[in-house]
Structure prediction request, 119 residues.
Amino acid sequence: MSDQQFNPTFSESLLPRPAVTVEALRVAVDRLDPEQTARFDKEFSEVEAAAGGAGNPLRSFLRSWSFWVELYRVPATAARIHGLELELARARSREESRMAATRMSVLLDEVSAALPWPP
Prediction:
């Protein structure tokens, strides 16, 4: 972690925060992790089939993928997430698990609070 804080580009975003639209999020997902694009497309197809492309399923889809993009568009945030996942996996006691889960929760809340959620 100490090496990361001296890398000025580590905390810079790989791309600007996209608009909360299917098109903009798909472009962002494709740029961040092309392997996830197929998952994005599959989930969007399911949303369209279930709701005709409108309503709560679409809103949930947009929220979910906006959150995913926000987690991975800044390398420092992605690294923190992965570090906490490893910490949780390596925890040897309930207290260690609880502490790691609390740190993860705080990080996820910070990311969520920064997002312009769709109406």
